[in-house]
Design brief:
By secondary structure, the protein is α+β, with helices and mostly antiparallel strands. The protein is about 25% helix and about 35% strand.
Length: about 400
C-alpha cells in the first residue's frame, strides 16, 4: 500500500514526541511509587575518656631539691706561741680522723718550762716580801699604840706602813699572774683537736719553726655536716625549723651513687639572706654522723663535703586536701572534670602548694570528683563524655 506523502510528513515528528511522553510518565510513576526514606535526627555521640577519682586526705607538704654539703664547723689551727715543732701525731695526714682533745702537735717545751720555774721563784719571793712587810706593820702598830698619840687617818696609814703592805700584795698578785701566763704558754705548746674532726690539709713537719701566724692544718667537724638547700620564699611557711618546741622537719637524703640507700636529716635553720641571683631562701639541713662512724649508722653511705645531694623535706600536715598530679593539669592551671551529667567541666586551679609533680588544693574540688586523664581534641565546657564502665549516648540512635 502506498502512503500519501502528506501522511508520511506528519508521522515523522510524532515519534519523538511519543517517546518523550512515555519517558515522562515512567519517571513520574517511579517517583510516586518508590519508598521514601524517613529523616532521623543525627545522634549526639559521647566521647570515651578515662578518669581518676580524687578524695580528700591528710597530706604532708614535701619540698624537694638539690643541696650542697658544707661543714658545720671548720677551723684552721694556728699555734698560740712560737717555737720549734717537736712531735706530731703518728699518721697525721689529709683525711685523718681525730677525736676531740687528741694531741696533734707538740712544740719544744724547754724554754717554756724554764719560764714557769722563773715565775714560780718570783711568786715565792713576792710572798716572802709580803710576809716580811706584814711583820713590819705589826711592829709599827705596837710602837704607835705605845706612844698614845692620835693621828689623822692619812698620817696613821703612813705610820702603820699601809702603802708598803699594799705594794707587797700587788707584787704577789703580779708575780702570780706572770706564773699563770707562763703555765698557759707551756700548755699552748701542745695543740689538740678542738672537736671530733677530719684533717683537710696540713703543713706540719717535725723541726719546723712556727709562730702564731703559721697555719698548721685545717679541720672539719665529723659530728655533723650541713646541707645548704634553696627553696622558694613562699614555701617557707610549710616548714618546721628546730627550736625549743620542735626538732625540725625530718629530711630524707638520697644520691644516685647510693644505690637506693638514704640518710636522715633534720631542718635546723634558714639563712637571713636570699640568693643574689635566684632570690631563693637558703635553708640548713643537719646530718648527724655523716661519715657513718657510729654503730647505728654502720653500712650507711658516708656523706662527703661539697657533694650535691637530693633532699626531701617533710613539711607541715594539711587536712582535707586534694592532691592533683601534674599530668592532669592542663594549660598550666586548669583541670578537666567529668560532671555527674557526663559532660566536661573546665576548672581553674587555686593550689595552696605546687611543685613539679603535683598541686595541692583545699577548694575547687569535691570528694569523689573524677578528673579526666585522657586527651581531648576540642575541650569545651559541656562536651558529652562517657567512660568505659558507664557508656552514655545522648539523642536518638540511628
Amino acid at each position: 500500500m502506498k502512503m500519501n506523502p502528506t501522511t508520511q510528513h506528519l508521522r515523522k515528528p510524532a515519534a519523538p514526541l511519543l517517546i518523550l511522553a512515555i519517558s515522562i510518565i515512567t519517571a513520574w510513576l517511579l517517583m510516586t511509587t518508590s519508598p521514601k526514606a524517613s529523616r532521623a535526627e543525627p545522634g549526639k555521640k559521647s566521647q570515651m575518656v578515662e578518669t581518676v577519682t580524687v578524695e580528700q586526705q591528710t597530706v604532708n607538704i614535701r619540698l624537694r631539691g638539690l643541696g650542697t654539703v658544707i661543714p658545720s664547723q671548720f677551723v684552721t689551727l694556728y699555734p698560740e706561741v712560737s717555737g720549734r715543732i717537736d712531735s706530731i701525731l703518728d699518721g697525721l695526714m689529709p683525711g685523718s680522723r681525730v677525736k676531740k682533745g687528741e694531741l696533734l702537735v707538740t712544740l719544744d717545751q724547754d724554754e717554756y718550762e724554764i719560764l714557769v720555774r722563773e715565775q714560780e721563784a718570783a711568786v715565792a719571793q713576792a710572798l716572802s716580801e709580803l710576809k716580811l712587810e706584814q711583820g713590819q706593820q705589826n711592829i709599827a702598830r705596837q710602837e704607835y699604840e705605845l706612844t698614845g698619840h692620835k693621828l689623822s687617818p692619812e698620817e696613821e696609814a703612813l705610820v702603820l706602813r699601809q702603802p708598803q703592805l699594799e705594794a707587797a700584795k700587788a707584787g704577789l698578785i703580779r708575780a702570780q699572774a706572770s706564773l699563770d701566763q707562763a703555765k698557759l704558754n707551756l700548755r699552748r705548746t701542745q695543740i689538740t683537736a678542738p672537736f671530733n674532726s677530719q684533717v683537710i690539709n696540713n703543713s706540719v713537719y717535725p723541726g719546723s719553726q712556727v709562730s702564731n701566724s703559721t697555719a698548721l692544718m685545717k679541720l672539719i667537724s665529723t659530728d655533723r655536716f650541713w646541707i645548704e638547700l634553696e627553696v622558694p620564699v613562699e614555701q617557707l611557711k610549710w616548714l618546721n625549723f628546730a627550736n625549743e618546741h620542735s626538732s625540725g622537719s625530718s629530711v630524707v637524703i638520697t644520691s644516685p651513687q647510693w644505690s637506693g640507700d638514704s640518710r636522715q636529716g633534720r631542718l635546723i635553720s634558714v639563712s637571713p639572706e636570699l640568693n643574689d641571683g635566684s632570690l631563693m631562701a637558703k635553708v640548713i639541713i643537719e646530718i648527724e654522723d655523716p661519715l657513718s662512724q657510729r654503730e647505728k649508722n654502720k653500712g650507711k653511705p658516708p656523706v662527703m663535703v661539697n657533694d650535691l645531694l637530693s633532699a626531701e623535706i617533710v613539711g607541715k600536715k594539711v587536712d582535707d586536701a586534694f592532691v592533683v598530679p601534674e599530668a592532669l593539669i592542663r594549660n598550666s592551671n586548669q583541670i578537666w572534670v567529668l560532671t555527674r551529667g557526663s559532660t566536661l567541666e573546665i576548672r581553674t586551679l587555686s593550689p595552696i602548694y605546687r611543685d613539679s609533680g603535683k598541686a595541692i588544693l583545699l577548694s575547687g574540688l569535691e570528694d569523689g570528683d573524677q578528673l579526666i586523664s585522657s586527651s581531648l581534641t576540642t575541650p569545651v565546657n559541656g562536651l558529652p563524655l562517657r567512660t568505659a564502665e558507664k557508656p552514655i549516648f545522648e539523642g536518638k540512635q540511628p
